[in-house]
Amino acid sequence: MFIVAVTSCPTGIAHTYMARESLIKAAAQRGIEIKVETQGSTGRENEITAQDLARADAAIIAADVSIAGAERFDPVPTLECSLSEAIKKSVKVLDEVVEAVK
């Protein structure tokens, strides 16, 4: 399974990257391949490409603000959650998205 994700917080500094790390760790525990784009104070990093979206089984948008390019995810089953959920309950978030695409 391949999941793409975007993390973004109002200031685009700490919580954006904390959520990214939590999702990556949870995905590794579950044997899931994940690519996480961050939208922070320095702009987009590790940007999700059209090729990534074409092979994605699902997407997670963990953000407390509107993300740039949200329409890219329209064709992909997408779970939206807060950054707090992605940081504190990353395994639960991943389990929910996996269950949704089964």
Automatic annotation (TrEMBL):
GO terms for molecular function: kinase activity; protein-N(PI)-phosphohistidine-fructose phosphotransferase system transporter activity; protein-phosphocysteine-sugar phosphotransferase activity. This is PTS sugar transporter subunit IIC. InterPro entries: Bacterial_PTS_Sugar_Transport, PTS_EIIB-like_sf, PTS_EIIB_2, PTS_EIIB_2/3, PTS_IIB_fruc. PANTHER family: FRUCTOSE-LIKE PERMEASE (PTHR30505), FRUCTOSE-LIKE PTS SYSTEM EIIBC COMPONENT-RELATED (PTHR30505:SF0). GO terms for cellular component: plasma membrane. One of its GO terms (biological process) is phosphoenolpyruvate-dependent sugar phosphotransferase system. PROSITE patterns: PTS_EIIB_TYPE_2. Transmembrane segments: none annotated. Residues 1-99 form the PTS EIIB type-2 domain. CDD domains: PTS_IIB_fructose (cd05569). Keywords: Kinase, Phosphoprotein, Phosphotransferase system, Sugar transport, Transferase, Transport.
